[in-house]
DNA sequence: TTGCATGCAAAGGATTTGCACTATC
DNA sequence: GATAGTGCAAATCCTTTGCATGCAA
């Protein structure tokens, strides 16, 4: 599932060096947590997990790091409106399955033979992503 | 573009009556504003516009009404993460073009010959929507 | 050493909620 | 007249920011 966490971390370190960002344990820890989780955690959830290793980190730092990672293109926000932002370290072209009951989000690869045109309604198009809404197995079972 | 505002309002009134919700000018005004706008306004923007007609309404009521409308399926949140939630009264199957610079959102109809399977990864699938990211005409021009 | 990054706490913005009052049914 | 809906203001939740200190380069 997660392709070479270490390799991705190395890339991140390289990127930081090349643009003059310092390599701090906090930054690495935040990215590593995101790499190891495929459930699109919130900043709060990342924070909880980073804290297990580095109890001194602050939420603000996690927010700042996540913003940096996003700007560098290492992670992205899941395009869905819930209570708080959810992040995804999977940068390959993929889509999301979203449970409309509990909000769980899973990645899906789809072989869709469709590419958006370069321009639509005057917009210069860069990429697209698909949200598929449904009910996850857990929520199907808990129906009474 | 907007298909029969009055007709849709009537449907809403009918729905309210059938489930015992009261018909108040605030509710109608909020829905009407949403029906007449195709630019996916925020709650704040809806509020500003409703206020022109009914200067006494409160933001809280707009929030509550928008929530009701969403639960009844008359409007939906645009699945994109920006500063605040944006709503859409277009309930036909359509997709969104999103400007990554200014956040503008436009509706698009796509003829995609793809239907999601009934089940994916155990999720029972209901519907899907596509976000297409790019740069809107306005932002293309303002590049220096 | 030289900043950039961090931690802390306070600020800010969006949204929700409690309560008394009002208006629809 | 009963009750759901509203307005107001306070509360809450999520996120950002200012500032002094600490650490990577």
What number is the mean pLDDT of chain A? 92
* CA(first)-CA(last) distance of chain A: 33 Å
Kindly report the name of the CATH homologous superfamily of the largest domain in chain A.
Winged helix-like DNA-binding domain superfamily/Winged helix DNA-binding domain
CATH class of the largest domain in chain A: Mainly Alpha
Order of helices and strands of chain A: HHHHEEEEEEH
What is the overall number of helices of chain A? 5
Question: Any idea what the shape of chain A is?
Answer: globular
Oligomeric composition of the shown chains: homodimer
**Tally of DSSP β-strands of chain A:** 6
| Beta-strand percent range of chain A | 15-25%
Please, how many domains of chain A? 2
Order of strands across the main sheet of chain A: 4-3-6-5
Estimated radius of gyration of chain A: 17 Å
Sheet with the most strands, sense and barrel status of chain A: 4 strands, mixed
Cofactor (chains A, B): Mn(2+); Fe(2+); Zn(2+)
GO biological process, one term (chains A, B): negative regulation of DNA-templated transcription
Protein name (chains A, B): Ferric uptake regulator, Fur family
InterPro entries (chains A, B): FUR, Fur_C, WH-like_DNA-bd_sf, WH_DNA-bd_sf
């Amino acid at each position: 599932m997660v392709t070479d966490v270490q390799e991705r971390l190395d890339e991140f370190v390289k990127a930081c060096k090349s643009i003059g960002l310092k390599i701090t344990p906090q930054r690495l820890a935040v990215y590593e947590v995101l790499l190891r989780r495929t459930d699109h955690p919130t900043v709060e959830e990342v924070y909880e997990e980073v804290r297990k290793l580095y109890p001194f980190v602050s939420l603000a730092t996690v927010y700042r790091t996540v913003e940096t990672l996003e700007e560098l293109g290492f992670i992205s926000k899941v395009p869905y409106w819930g209570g708080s932002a959810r992040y995804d370290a999977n940068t390959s072209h993929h889509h999301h399955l979203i449970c409309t009951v509990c909000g769980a989000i899973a990645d899906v690869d789809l072989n869709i033979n469709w590419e958006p045109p370069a321009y639509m309604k005057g917009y210069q198009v860069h990429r697209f992503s698909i949200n598929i809404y449904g009910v996850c197995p857990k929520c199907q079972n808990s129906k009474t």
